[in-house]
Amino acid sequence: MRLLDRYLLLEWLKALGLALGATLAVLLLEDMYGNLGDLVSDGAHPREVVIYYGLLLPSFLPAVLPMSQLVSLLFIVGNLHRNLEVTAMRAAGLSLWRIARPLWLGGVVLAVVLAWFDAVVVPGAVTAARNFRDQLHHQAEKQHHPGGDAGLVLDLTYDNATARRRWFIDSYSSDTRIAHGVHIYEFNAKGLDTRTVLAYEGHFDPASNHWVLSRGREMRFDDTGSPMQLIPFTAERTFAEFSDDPARMLTLRQSAGNLSLDELRSALVQAPAGGNPAMDAYAVEYYSILTKPLICLLIVGLAVPFAVAGIRTSPAVGASKAVGLFFAYYIVSGVSTHLGNQHFLPSYLAAGLPIFVMLGLSLWLFRRAA
After folding, report:
1. Rounded to an integer, what distance in angstroms lies between the CA atom of residue 181 and that of residue 167?
2. What is the Cα 39 distance to its own chain's centre?
3. Residues of the chain above pLDDT 90, percent
4. Are strands 193-205 and 210-221 parallel, antiparallel or unpaired?
5. C-beta atoms surrounding 34 within 10 Å
6. What is the rounded CA–CA span in Å between residue 30 and residue 49?
7. What's the whole-model pTM score?
8. From CA 74, how far away is CA 68, in angstroms rounded?
């Protein structure tokens, strides 16, 4: 039995390696087609291009692993059944569950690998590639506009729901880390203003984790939201209570799909989801990353029974059904994600419901085929 398990596992791993390599190459070429021109226009040397894609490549794995697993399983199980090897195994008294045991174990291992990549490897790869790309872009801006301000971001906004604080910054330079036109509004549980701080200029001190503002005024309000006290200031003034990092503000300007698990978790701690479409999207993405590894088990439940049953008519029939259900899952998942982003579904339900429903369906199909 161990020899059978080893044989099935090795054959599947060979097919998985080929499918994974081909899919990664296609994604890499697609990204190069869209972004290589921008890298070259920013003055990137061939060595820097290689470094950038070396940093970015691990972030592709969670996207390509499920499809590669599906293709490899359909290929290897279909070949076994076409060569009557599955029929011989069943004639020897082995059930489909027993035959596919190494494939299920492989699915569990892939699920663990996918979870590890999403939680540990991909966040570092995404952050490193983004920082490397931004650095190249800022250097190009400095060369093309020597007197300008590289990395200038206009109309930076941020909501800290936990601290009941809202930020509006007219312009912020990620190069000099200086903000101009800083507007900070604080409010109570009823939504009434409690304090407003306006400043011409400010910067965030990462060492002490607070903001330093200059040339501004602070206005305080009473419990009814009416102005109570105005405190002007011209010299630099430290606001120890303002610990909102501008790096996090810049991170949240990106779409949820471009953020790592740690960045999503950090964002949701300070601004929980619930009625805010932007934060709802981050919450759905966060729970999607947590439940995504289960797709490796879903694929085993879809690929094996259809690869075995489809051969009775044509090898392509079972494979097409499995691929169709696989893409149906992505369609349902996309609809569910949209409903979660719009707050029609709770974030955890929008992320988890499609995968658990399809996983249950795949197990039922496997049991019926066994």
Report:
1. 11
2. 23
3. 22
4. antiparallel
5. 8
6. 15
7. 0.73
8. 10
